[in-house]
Design brief:
Keywords: Membrane, Transmembrane, Transmembrane helix. By secondary structure, the chain is of the alpha+beta class. The chain contains 4 helices and 7 strands, in the order αααββββββαβ. A 4-stranded antiparallel β-sheet has the order 1-2-3-7. A 3-stranded antiparallel β-sheet has the order 4-5-6, covered by helices on one side. The chain is rod-shaped and about 100 Å long.
């Protein structure tokens, strides 16, 4: 009886050892699979982070291009009044064009996009101005650093890229009466009556008198650009909105 019990116990120990030996390779396979999944998730997260960084750079570069272009438009609109030339003569057609967001060079805008992309560790690979239905800048950037080495092949030499488009939206139009209903300054120095239009003169003439004012309406608010009264002038954001296209 005792011998039988001993043989039974010995057999159980041998079977337990064989079971443990068979389970160990399965354990190694499971650990390796979990490690592979962890590394794969890390690689995916690394790629997503690189892509998000490139998109941030593209958004910033496109907005920078649009804002630079808006500043150029604003300068072109207001400088004649600061210099005393005023809003008479053939300038109205040019100002109407600029109020629609056209008429200035797009080169400085794309240069500004380059600078802002560099601040976000990226380079601009394309900057494409557009004009319909509104002036826009489509900017494509590429990250300066690769995604990084991972278990996914070629990520060590892959660079994230992204594109964004900024639109310069006009907010103003020329007032119908040309001056917004406020008396202007005539080209020869005579004041217009209250509620009347200014004279037809352009730049300041030999009398040293400023040119006539120009009325514009921005989102329902009337501004009178008067060379003789420069205390209140619209800001760039009053004239144009810059936003990312959806």
């Amino acid at each position: 009886m005792a011998a039988t019990t001993a043989r039974t116990a010995g057999g159980a120990r041998r079977r337990g050892g064989r079971d443990a030996g068979q389970a160990f390779p399965l354990y190694l396979v499971a650990v390796a699979a979990l490690l592979f999944l962890a590394l794969a998730f890390f690689a995916v997260g690394q790629a997503a982070a690189s892509r998000n960084g490139a998109q941030t750079a593209a958004d910033a570069a496109a907005l920078a291009a649009g804002q630079q272009y808006r500043d150029q438009l604003t300068k072109g609109l207001l400088d004649p009044f600061r210099s005393g030339a005023g809003g008479g003569g053939d300038g109205r057609a040019r100002w109407a064009e600029q109020l629609r967001g056209r008429g200035v060079s797009s080169g400085p805008a794309c240069e500004n996009a380059d600078w802002f992309a560099a601040q976000n560790d990226a380079v601009v690979s394309a900057c494409r101005p557009g004009s319909e239905p509104a002036t826009s800048f489509a900017v494509t950037v590429k990250s300066r650093k690769p995604v990084g080495r991972s278990i996914i092949p070629s990520t060590g030499s892959t660079y994230a890229s992204a594109e964004a488009k900024a639109v310069v939206v006009p907010r103003c139009t020329l007032a119908e009466d040309g001056t917004g209903g406020t008396g202007g300054t005539g080209g020869t120095g005579d004041k217009g009556g209250t509620g009347g239009k200014g004279g037809d003169g352009g730049a300041a003439d030999g009398t040293g008198q400023p040119g006539p004012p120009l009325g514009i309406v921005c989102d329902g608010k009337t501004w009178v650009l008067d060379p003789g009264n420069l205390r209140v002038l619209p800001q760039a954001s009053d004239l144009f909105a810059v936003r990312l296209a959806q």
